[in-house]
Specification:
It contains 6 helices and 3 strands; from the N terminus they run E-H-H-E-E-H-H-H-H. Strands 1-3-2 form a 3-stranded antiparallel beta sheet. Strand 2 and strand 3 (about 50-55) form a beta hairpin. Helix 1 (about 15-20) crosses helix 2 and helix 5 packs across helix 6 (about 130-144). It is extended and about 60 Å long. With about 140 residues, the protein is mainly alpha-helical. The relative contact order is 0.08.
């Protein structure tokens, strides 16, 4: 792991792996980890100890970078772009389109995303979908 590589089923990453995924130095990873208090476990390796950071305990943008770095970009079986690679290319194209739209459209998208997240949270807490939608819609109307 110190070389920034991963294997399937790995639930943690060391500072070199995180640095590689983020495009920063291992020292930068350590500073941020200490500043933000990332949870870690120490693993005995030849020459000392290594801190392993649980991927699911890292900040969202770092989780995304590490998980993306873990995925193969191409399917080795047929040398065609994998469905995952096509999906990632489509997402990248959509983000590019999003970045080109005027700010008022981004603001509208953000409000809609917030509403969808509120509905999802209510459903997660046990409310019926219809009731969650109605509650969020009512709140949006009150807020203007």
């Amino acid at each position: 792991m110190a070389d920034g590589t991963y294997s399937a089923g790995v639930s943690g990453a060391d500072k070199a792996a995180i640095a590689s995924a983020m495009g920063i130095t291992p020292r930068g990873v350590m500073k941020r980890a200490e500043r933000e208090g990332w949870a870690y476990t120490e693993m005995r390796v030849s020459g000392g100890m290594r801190r392993m950071y649980a991927i699911d305990g890292l900040p969202a943008e770092i989780q995304a970078a590490v998980l993306l770095a873990m995925r193969p970009a191409m399917s080795l079986a047929n040398n065609k772009p994998s469905k995952q690679a096509r999906d990632e290319a489509q997402i990248k194209a959509l983000w590019s389109r999003y970045e080109q739209v005027p700010q008022h459209m981004k603001d509208t998208a953000q409000r809609r995303l917030t509403a969808l997240q509120a509905v999802a949270k209510l459903v997660e807490q046990g409310h019926l979908m219809q009731d969650a939608r109605a509650a969020v819609a009512a709140q949006l109307q009150r807020d203007g």
